[in-house]
Here is the input.
Amino acid sequence: MTRDDRAAWQVLCQDRFQAGVPLSRYTAIRTGGPAKWLLDARDESEIASALGLARRLGIPTLMMGCGSNLLISDHGFDGLVVRLGPGFNRMTAAGLCVRAQAGATLKAVACFAADRNLSGLSFAAGIPGSLGGACYMNAGAFGGEMAQTITFLDCLDPEGRRLTVTVGQAAFGYRHSRMMEEGLIVLGAELRLQPGHKEELYRQMREYQACRLEKQPLTYPSAGSFFKRPAGLFAGKLIEEAGLKGLTVGKAQVSGKHAGFLINLGGATTADFLALKSEVQRRVMAASGVMLEPEVRIIPEEAGK
Here is the structure.
């Protein structure tokens, strides 16, 4: 580190960073302690500058979109949290391709495409979260996943340097990608879609949403499906068969509507969810011999082990 780096960090602390902001405000599950520093980034250059400085100064960093798939320690994050601000939701279309920035919600991108008679994103319209997070973890639903639509991604590496990652280079798997492995930050994506009809696409999206409302506990805060789907099986079914619907630790509960969801009854802590996660894993392992793996990102990772 250099004296100039330290001076630049102090300027950011005074002018752009917020200190001690509770991250429960920004996570869908409504838990998480304070960030030491929080930056609502205005543009790509600000992200690159802040991340590069943080790395040179040895300060941990965490990127956040909509916070829909995060479980953050009650102690918070002892470093810099970067959120994508309103300047990161622009979208354009050309032919069968849609370009969108990482901060755009999946619903907004799906509707943008449907309005232009472009098909291929109806499955994503009801997935809570941002495009960046969805690409990072290869989110999916109703038989579709982001990898089916992506041609390339605009990313930053941990040093703050820009790079393009093609779909062939992204190493997509089930809820997995190269970006997760290498700590790459998704800034935006180009999606290649197919010709469709606006009315049919909106009808399809309404059907998917009705199915979600019927089967999922959408009236409670949650991180969505908490566990990954084991090969050839369904996590929710294994949890239900183990008799765990309604199991409660503190104010965290296995949903009685869909056992794959762990819900916040109001006032739950991350510690409640971690204890509930461990108990569900233990009992499902005892009942079926399957060890469930979390689908949510647990920050810090050590807390999830």
